[in-house]
Every structure is written in structure tokens, then in C-alpha cells.
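#struct-help
A.M.: can someone run this one for me? Single chain, 133 residues.
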Amino acid sequence: MSSTPTSVTLKPDARLPLLVVVFGAALLPLPLHPWPTLVVVLFGVFLLIQTASLRLEFEERALIVWQNSRELRRFPYDQWLTWRLFAPWLPGLLYFRETQSIHFLPILFSPKELREQLELRVGALEVPASNDD
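D.P.: on it. C-alpha cells below:
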């Protein structure tokens, strides 16, 4: 594993928050307007703020979640049991399970870089589409 870079920080990708904002705007003609639009657009704005402030760093032994310059959480790779990307073309969600807990993260980063780093750092723990026992 000498070819593994020591640390990689993923580039932000605002497609998901912008898609949520557009979806919220499309709800305007519905009954009860403007409430559905307001709720969905505010969620999109929240995701946009998260896109600007959060960073995922893949270091040698752990995935680190940063907010601005403060470390929020560290996920050691040796604790990972499985992972999966849901709808990475949107981008969608990253699901991963550790020995003690399950996590869902919106993909606010380059989905291509995210998949590459997961395969490189964590390995082939991706959950297949159907699980036959």
C-alpha cells in the first residue's frame, strides 16, 4: 500500500443542494403554497451551507469530517463493516456501517472521488444491490 496517498480532501459538489432548491421551487403550484416550497427550499439552503462548510478528509487510518477548521468526527477504517453509495449520479447518500453504529451522509462532495477513496482506503465492502445468502 505504499502507493496510497497520505491524505486526500474531497472537493465540494453543490449539485444535491441545488437540486433540492429547484425541487422546492417546483412545488410552488401545489395547494398549501408557499409552505411546501418554503420547507424544501430552506432544507436545500441548509445543505448548501453544509456544502460550503463541511469537508471529508481521507487520511491513512480514518475518514475525518471537518466543519470549517474544526474536526467533527473521525471514523477509523478498521471499524467499517460495509458501505454503499445510493444514487451517486445525483449525488445522493453515502451509507456506511461501523461496528457500533450506522451512518448516512448526503453526498456533498465529488461522487467520483468519494467512490475512488472508499475503494482505495476501505476496500471492497460495498453492499451489493441484492444480497443472496
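A.M.: thanks! Helices lie at 15-26, 35-53, 111-121.
D.P.: also worth noting: The chain is about 30% helix and 30% strand.
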